[in-house]
Amino acid sequence: MLVGERMTHPVIPVHPETSVPEALTLMRREKIRRLPVVDHGRLVGIVTDRDLLHASASSATTLSVWELNYLLSKLTVERVMCTDVLTVAEDTPIEEAARIMADNKIGGLPVMRGDHIVGMITETNLFRVLLEMTGAREKGVRATVLVPDRAGQLAQLTHAVAELGGNIIALSTFAGEDLSNSLVMCKLTGVEPELLRKQLAPLVERIVDIRES
């Protein structure tokens, strides 16, 4: 899965000279938390709701409300935006975008096609991918098992499910308790939880959880 398949588009940009109140109003109306800042078609920065709210709060002095509103109306996005922007391309693997966001503690990345921004990949997009990967929106039996970290384990599990007539709608692997094992989570239909438990028990180190979900 690539970023271009799951990014949010079209992009809602702002200009560097957009005022802070205007940008905040736009974010609230569109229910978004970050805006790319574009000047003459070129990405020059990114601004988040936190940047804008912090700028608004820091302007609160002993000024009267009228003076404060006037001051904020003159404060532009250019003054508060981040100019050191990390970006990804449309053909970036989705997990690479997630790694960049996690490692840099950021909630979104502009998606570029050459010099032009064509989308945003955000934490919300990644949450939706997680829902797809785990089959969270579909009813079925959810099983989590601990298996030895060696070749052929997934093949054994999927064969065992097929023997019961089960249909796997999602399957993911995760780090186990140590380097010798892995956690496998699968969501399937067409099989009873207890029958599945009996079928998988001889093949795994431990059944962590089996439930209807």
TrEMBL record:
Domain ACT positions: 142-213
> Residue ranges of the CBS domain?
7-62, 81-138
Keyword Repressor applies: no
Q: Which CDD domains match?
A: CBS_pair_AcuB_like (cd04584)
Arranged from A to Z, the UniProt key words for this protein are:
CBS domain
Q: Which SMART domains match?
A: CBS
- The protein's superkingdom reads Bacteria
An example Pfam family from this entry, by short name, is: CBS
Whether Lipoprotein counts among this entry's keywords is: no
| Protein name as catalogued | CBS domain-containing protein
UniProt organism field: Kouleothrix aurantiaca
